[in-house]
Specification:
The protein is built from eight helices and five strands, in the order E-E-H-H-H-H-E-E-H-H-E-H-H. By secondary structure, the chain is mainly alpha-helical. It has a domain of 145 residues: GIY-YIG endonuclease, CATH 3.40.1440. It is rod-shaped and about 195 Å long. The relative contact order is 0.05.
Length: 333
């Protein structure tokens, strides 16, 4: 590479050229740095002189500015202290008023609470009285129920005792009737039975059959029936009784009641069996017909005047089950 140096041309290699460029650049940089340093020193010197010249003035200004700021701060402090004192005074007045109001409110609340307590106490007392009354009522109901149960148990016990007595009486009665059949039945001898059989045989030949039936009653049954009544009833002929008519062969039973003399009722049963009586003809009358001497007649109970005769009849029908296994067609009553 050829370069011009100081009016002459010289041939240099590339590395030498690079070194020269670097040296030139370095020289320029040093020159710039030296120039800058010179000017900085000059400026620093001028500033130092200026500061030395004006130090007192600047210091006085700063002191004056500091005094002003201090006065402002003191003024602000005084203002804040006054505001604080005013707040304290306001707070104390508010607290006093609040305390007064609290005392007044407390008195009012005390009155209200006392009133509410009294009302609650009265309500509680009323509720307690009501609950006590309810408990008394419930206890009374329980007592009444227990008394009813007791009465029912006593009634059941009495009923059982009466039923047991009736069972025992029936055992004795059945035994006595069995042992003394002739005592409780109409006694017909064989001749009377033969005559009755012949009369019954010719009944179909008569237009007025009642004539034959009345003849059988008056000539063969009535006398023997009266004799049986005397044996069973003696001289008495009680009214208002429950009676029994019992088949001695089948042990089937008929239970009846009557307010009239019992002998009259038995008479009507016998006559109705012959179709000449005044009562309705039922199973017992069909069974009695031509078997008059195979039935026993007896009294089960003489019911006191005023008591329910039908209820006692129903009791004996239920006891003997004679509406199911006997001649009664109804449960009685």
């Amino acid at each position: 590479m050829i370069i011009l140096i100081m009016g002459g041309y010289y041939k240099v290699d590339f590395s030498t050229w690079i070194i020269m460029v670097v040296l030139i650049i370095a020289s320029c940089v040093l020159a710039i740095i030296g120039t800058k340093k010179f000017y900085v020193n000059q400026l620093t010197k001028k500033n130092t002189e200026y500061l030395q010249k004006n130090y007192v003035e600047i210091r006085n200004k700063l002191l004056e500015q500091a005094r002003t700021e201090i006065k402002e701060v003191q003024h602000n402090i005084t203002t804040k202290q006054q505001e604080y004192a005013a707040l304290v005074e306001t707070y104390e007045k508010t607290f006093a008023n609040t305390h007064y109001l609290m005392e007044q409110y407390g008195e009012k609340q005390k009155v209200i609470i006392d009133k509410e307590v009294k009302e609650w106490a009265a309500s509680a007392q009323e509720a307690a009285n009501h609950n006590a009354q309810l408990q008394i009522t419930q206890l009374q109901e329980q007592i009444n129920q227990m008394q009813d149960k007791k009465a029912q148990v006593e009634q059941d016990l009495t009923s059982m005792q009466l039923r047991q007595k009736a069972v025992n009486d029936e055992i004795l009665r059945s035994r006595e009737i069995e042992e003394k059949q002739n005592f409780y039945r109409i006694n017909l001898d064989e001749s009377s039975k033969d005559d009755i059989a012949r009369l019954l045989a010719i009944v179909p030949n008569f237009n007025y059959k009642e004539t034959i039936y009345k003849l059988i009653w008056t000539e063969y049954l009535q006398k023997q029936f009266k004799a049986m009544v005397v044996r069973v009833l003696g001289s008495a002929d009680p009214k208002n009784v429950i009676y029994m008519i019992k088949n001695l062969d089948t042990q089937e039973i008929y239970i009846g009641k009557t307010k009239a003399e019992v002998s009259k009722r038995w008479t009507e049963h016998l006559k109705t069996s012959l179709n000449i009586g005044s009562i309705s003809r039922t199973l017992i009358h069909k069974a009695l017909f031509n078997n008059w001497d195979r039935f026993a007649f007896c009294i089960l109970e003489e019911v006191p005047e005023g008591e329910d005769l039908g209820r006692r009849e129903k009791y004996y029908i239920d006891f003997y089950q004679s509406n199911k296994y006997g001649y009664n067609i109804k449960a009685g009553g």
